Amino acid sequence: MINVIATDIDGTFFSDDDQFDRLGFQAQLAEMNHRQMHFIAASSNHLDHLVKIFADFNGPISYVANNGGHVVNEQGQTIAEQPVSSRQWHQIVAWLTQQGQLPAARIILIGEHGTYTEVPASDQFFQAAGYFYDDLQSIANINAVSDKVYKLDITCGDFNIAPIYQGLQQQFGHQVNVVMSGLNGIDIMANGVSKLSGIEVLLNTWQLPLAQVAAFGDNDNDYEMLTGVGHGLAMKNAAPNLLKRYPHLTKWDNNHDGVTRSISDILRNQEH
Predict the structure, then answer these.
(1) What structural domains and CATH numbers belong to the chain?
(2) What whole-number percentage of the chain has pLDDT above 90?
């Protein structure tokens, strides 16, 4: 029995042009509400962006934002926050800045009250990142940020991401959670924080087990979630790294409503 649906957003719930079946999804939300089921948007995106996506929908929606760093229930209440400590993220920024491949300008800090980068506001990268981070701010010195930081977003451009990822794992993997993300990037959260840990927080409030969760994702930062729930499906269009590690795939990709069509299958198979 599936009582909870959890999904990543970009590359999973969204098509490549950031669309989804809005009418069909609203009908699904209404049906889930009728059946006392729950829907979780589990994403590396920050909370404000996720709330904006679903602002026009009526139904049971909870949010696991920043890969589990910030968890909000269906009533809009924050029920868990696990930021990266100031000491840890300063150490990570210092280490990354010393790497010749990655200037500090490619680091984004996602905080409680804002999102911060040293990239100039006129830069093309800043404009692109602004889609995911509605409150992105260009600042002179990222080390001066005093906000609570839920996540570090390391964007690596077109160069080989593997050495940076491996270096971060060697230097800090015992202190924080370092995972690959979309668009050739790396996400860094507090130790033990993941989409799965955020889902578990919500499940505890509903007194439901992981076995009753269906989850969908397309990248390495979804791996723990997919393997930890009862019914995890990687998208047919998932990143190569995830496809190598995880064999269970959706029938349809993100450009053919893979998630909403899978939800329809689940609801149909559980008709009373």
Answers:
(1) 4-81+193-269 (3.40.50.1000), 86-190 (3.30.1240.10)
(2) 82
